[in-house]
Design a protein that fits this description.
alpha+beta, 6-stranded antiparallel β-sheet, 5-stranded antiparallel β-sheet
């Protein structure tokens, strides 16, 4: 550190102390002084100088009084060695390892000590203790072998007084013992110094580890901060700015480019730092062996430490002379590279694997954030499109959550149901209750629809009437909303206005009713006159004429049945047919019907069997209507059962209902046709159906009549094996005050 820098440092220290309290300033100064003293004492140069000064001080005190020895040439040798050793100790390169030079210095020091011992009394001088300093000083520089050699030579020099003095045995014994101490001191000093060196090395390792740990901690803190900011941003440009800012902080780069991959070897600059527009175009030019494109294609980091590292990249570096080293890392998301981050420096060997690891982490965070922002934008666009489509529909649409709370409604349904902003978030049941105009649901209640959609996860259909001055008719379709785990998230309600269709249907029913009434009277007359002619009231007829009359009567009976069916379905839909409920014995009804249909069964060669549970309770039903239903089902079974087949009618108790099953071994019904067999004017496509005629009203009438009784009807079938129609009728509960006739409001609707 230069003197100017030291002055600046001292200036800053003083400035910092001035802002502290007085005791804190004193403590700080003491700590700094203590640290400097420790460093000074710990240096080899200070120890060497202190050793030399000790010799000079000893000479001044002990050598000069021995005047007879100061006149000898040895004194001048002492002075010469002292003068030579002072600059030698001052200039010796302790920071380097120079074993021969240091060995020479120690030997010169031993010579100086030997001369000093001679000048201060020989074997009686205490300056021989300085030999220990040479040995200890050597242990800090040499290893155990070199120090042992130097200790042996020093011990030999220690016996130099034998050459110029008469030494008695006691003195020689003490000198020998001292030599042993020299050897022990050498071993102990080497052990201590080696341990000290090991500790120093361990401290250095720990310091390096702490430094690396601190660097890693700062790096992790920065990456954590970047991940939080990137995760909290949904703006594409903001994500690019965050990425650039943290790249500057973590990577020693002068030029940074964040590029988006447009496909077909095209890159677009999203954000850059330290790069001009011309440089951007030059760096992303799609030339052969462009390292930036290589990172995108290989989906791997590319590090180029020198312009001469790979000759394939020469065209790139020639186009970009200001780049000495470069690193490019792909932005990987959704199994593809969506872009690349490129860092460049004018110096060579700037980037290494650690930088690649950091950039990969930043790149992965950025790629996820960019993909999330793109998905968010796409979702937002899709949401806006869906909302635009929903809002433009004339049909009413509303969405509820799994707790039946209203969360979405389009303008059409808002107008139909008078929905206000305050109605969002409330249960749909409350919304229906607060309607200014009552909404009457047919077939199913709102609770039944919600259970079917939210609990069972099935699509529910129904009809509703908005009762006003001009009633509006709606078809309601409710579809469940499910998540990936097939759990209910809510439902969508669609209200399709069918008022015009209902009006046309009503006109159709009126037309059918009028035509049926108008046809019924002439058909009755035709049948009457046919019977009169057949009875020969108008004169005799031939057998051929009788055959023709039978055909006419048979067709008239068919037309009459068809007209009756049309009238029944018309009355049912207009709510004009009621049921007269009374306790009835089902056994007698079934036996009577089987008896009536026996001739038809015999003609088809079909056997009819019955299985009626013993002690079956009375049913609560309308005799004529139940008779009509069972006879219709039995007639269908006979029609569609081939000769030799079997029809079975069974009846048994099922809780509070009587379960009736009519099974045949006939042609059966395809599975695809089963959901439609109870629809009006629907007929299963088959040659037998066309041969038997009919317009598809028998089963719909049966269904409506059974519903009027509070029961249910369904069908199961297997093609080619037969069909089973099942229906339930309520059992008589024994209420003596039960009305015998169901009032008008309980009529079929």
């Amino acid at each position: 550190m230069s003197s100017t820098e030291e002055e600046k440092t001292d200036h800053y220290i003083v400035k910092a102390i001035s802002f502290k309290t007085w005791p804190e300033s004193i403590i700080s100064i003491e700590r700094k002084c203590e640290s400097r003293v420790k460093k000074l004492i710990g240096s080899k140069r200070f120890i060497a100088l202190f050793f030399w000064l000790t010799i000079i001080f000893g000479i001044l005190l002990f050598v000069l009084p021995f005047e007879e020895r100061t006149r000898t040439p040895i004194f001048f040798l002492f002075v010469g060695l002292s003068i030579l050793l002072l600059p030698a100790y001052l200039l010796f390169p302790y920071q380097e390892y120079r074993p021969y030079l240091f060995f020479s210095l120690m030997m010169a020091t031993n010579a100086l000590i030997a001369v000093t011992v001679y000048l201060t009394g020989g074997s009686k001088s205490h300056f021989f203790l300085l030999y220990m300093a040479v040995i200890i000083f050597s242990t800090t520089y040499f290893g155990i072998l070199e120090t042992a050699l130097l200790a042996a030579i020093t011990s030999a020099i220690y016996f130099a007084p034998i050459l110029y003095e008469n030494i008695d045995f006691e003195t020689f014994k003490n000198m020998a013992f001292t030599t042993a101490i020299f050897i022990i001191l050498t071993l102990c000093g080497s052990f201590i110094i080696n341990k000290a060196k090991e500790q120093e090395e361990e401290k250095d390792i720990i310091a390096d580890l702490l430094k690396e740990t601190d660097y890693k901690r700062q790096e992790l803190a920065t990456l954590y901060s970047s991940s939080i900011k990137l995760a909290s941003s949904l703006d594409y440009k903001e994500i690019a700015e965050i990425m650039l800012a943290y790249t500057k902080e973590l990577i020693p780069a002068e030029k940074i480019l964040l590029l988006a991959d447009l496909g077909e070897s095209r890159l677009e600059v999203v954000k850059s730092a330290g790069v001009s527009l011309n440089q951007e175009m030059s760096m992303i030019d799609a030339i052969d062996h462009n390292p930036i494109y290589l990172a995108v294609d290989a989906v791997l980091p590319v590090i180029i430490n020198s312009r001469k590292e790979d000759s394939r990249f020469n065209p790139f570096f020639q186009r970009n002379p200001g780049i000495g080293s470069l690193i490019a890392v792909p932005l990987f998301a959704s199994s593809r590279a969506i872009g690349v981050i490129c860092c460049a420096s004018s110096e060579e060997f700037t980037f290494h694997d650690e930088h690649a690891r950091i950039l990969l982490t930043l790149a992965s965070q950025t790629a996820v954030a960019i993909e999330k922002s793109m998905l968010y934008k796409k979702t937002l666009d899709d949401k806006m499109k869906i909302e635009a489509i929903i809002n433009s529909l004339k049909d009413g649409i509303m969405v509820i959550d799994h707790q039946t709370n209203l969360i979405l409604a389009n303008p059409s349904i808002k107008e139909i149901m008078g929905i206000t902003p305050q109605d969002f978030g409330i249960p749909i049941e409350s919304l229906f209750q607060k309607l200014p105009i009552p909404l009457l649901l047919k077939d199913k209640s709102l609770e039944d629809i919600l259970v079917q959609v939210l609990v069972e996860g099935k699509t529910a259909r129904g009809e509703a009437i908005l009762q006003g001055e001009q009633p509006q008719y709606f078809q309601i379709i409710s579809v469940p909303l499910k998540d990936q785990l097939d759990s209910s998230m809510g439902a969508v309600f669609l209200m399709h206005d069918i008022t015009d269709l209902a009006r046309l249907d009503r006109l159709k029913n009126d037309f059918i009713s009028i035509v049926s009434h108008e046809l019924k009277t002439p058909l009755t007359s035709i049948r009457g006159f046919v019977r009169l002619i057949n009875a020969e009231r108008a004169g005799p007829i031939s057998e051929k004429q009788r055959h023709y009359l039978e055909i006419v009567e048979k067709q008239a009976v068919g037309l009459t049945k068809l007209i009756n069916d049309l009238l029944d379905i018309s009355r049912i839909e207009s709510g004009m047919i009621g049921v007269v409920l009374q306790p009835l014995s089902l056994t007698g009804i079934i036996e009577n019907i089987v008896m009536q249909m026996a001739n038809l069964a015999i003609e088809k060669d079909v056997e009819i069997t019955t299985e009626i549970e013993e002690g079956l309770p009375l049913i609560y039903a309308d005799r004529d209507r139940i008779n009509q239903v069972i006879m219709n089902l039995l007639d269908n079974a006979i029609k569609f059962t081939d000769a030799g087949g079997n029809i079975n009618i069974s009846a048994k108790r099922a809780d509070d209902f009587c379960l009736i099953e009519i099974s045949d071994t006939g042609v059966g019904i395809p599975q695809s046709e089963l959901p439609h067999v109870f629809d009006k004017f629907y007929q299963v496509e088959s040659s037998m159906t066309r041969q038997r005629g009919g317009i598809g009203l028998g089963l719909p009438i049966c269904k409506e009549l059974i519903k009027a009784h509070g029961g249910d009807i369904w069908v199961s079938s297997s093609l080619g094996k037969g069909t089973t129609f099942s229906l339930t009728i309520p059992l008589y509960q024994g209420d003596p005050f039960a009305a015998s006739i169901r009032p008008q409001e309980e009529a079929i609707s």
